[in-house]
Amino acid sequence: MRSIVIILLVCLGIKGFSQELNCNVVVNALQTGNENLQIFKTLEKQLNEFVNNTKWTNKSFANQERINCSMVISITDFSGEAFQGTLQVQSSRPVFGSSYSTPIYSFNDKDFTFRYLEFQNLTFNPNQFESNLISVLAFHIYMVLALDADSFSEKGGDSYYAQAQTITNYSQQENFKGWKVEDGLQSRFALIDNVLSPTFKEYRAVMYSYHIEGLDIMSDDAKGGKEEIADALIKFKAMNSRRPNSFLLRTFFDAKADEIAQIFSDGPNVDISNLKETLQKIAPTQSSKWRNIKF
Predict the structure, then answer these.
(1) Torsion-angle region of 171 (φ positive above 0: left; ψ -120 to 50: alpha; else: beta)
(2) Do residues 88 and 71 make contact, with C-beta atoms less than 8 angstroms apart?
(3) Which of 2, 20, 7 is closest to 142 using CA atoms?
(4) What are 187-219's pLDDT values in tens digits?
(5) Does this model's pTM top 0.70?
(6) Cα(105)–Cα(251) distance, integer angstroms
(7) Please, which of 85, 123, 224, 230 could form a disulfide with 275 given CB 3.0 to 4.6 Å?
(8) What's the pLDDT tens digit per position in 216-235?
């Protein structure tokens, strides 16, 4: 009887843990004029299964710990097995003591071309190029995992950034855009290179302090949390002085600008005159939001 109970407990324990992501993958082929073709439906179904059922880490995630994210693939053109389009990736994570989820990652990948044969096997090899479709999705998945981990612990995303860099390195050998230095300042190469560069060392520090020391304490201490968030954002001044209006800063504020404006326009008053001045300098493209902050 005791052995049966142990077996049941083990089975329940295994069942209680799952893959890392709760990701909604959408394939939008409206721009092709052939959006109702079966191949697009098959691709969407296969990608949802691939992203959500692949084990991306060696860690166990309870169902409630799965990272919520989305991937929207907009197909602009296709011919045979060759597809061209864009990929919008977004992710969020829950805020302690609330029902609110905060945006973590927002990236619009404009250099997305791939080959796909309907019903082909989709498998990820961490050390070897399989296809550009697999490489691009896996790269962004590891960025989602890395930034999520960084928001919970200092440099918590190290191993995931390393895997994203490995994917970048082996994908450079293929003839697809977005993987090389010459592919521009807003590419996958630029993103992972910037995150890991000492030039942008404050970025990961801000990801940690903004969330753990700021947002996550606001349910118990709203004023203290707001002050910590302001202090975290001001750390970007040093980074911006080294590389003004950097791509990395733009990706941060693409995800966070609306949230920041809301945080400092509600709740207990804190002195943010220095913060507003800083935001205007480091994120000028979001200036309309900063002007609307009330304090």
Answers:
(1) alpha
(2) yes
(3) 20
(4) 999 999 999 999 999 999 999 999 999 999 999
(5) yes
(6) 8
(7) 230
(8) 999 999 999 999 999 999 99
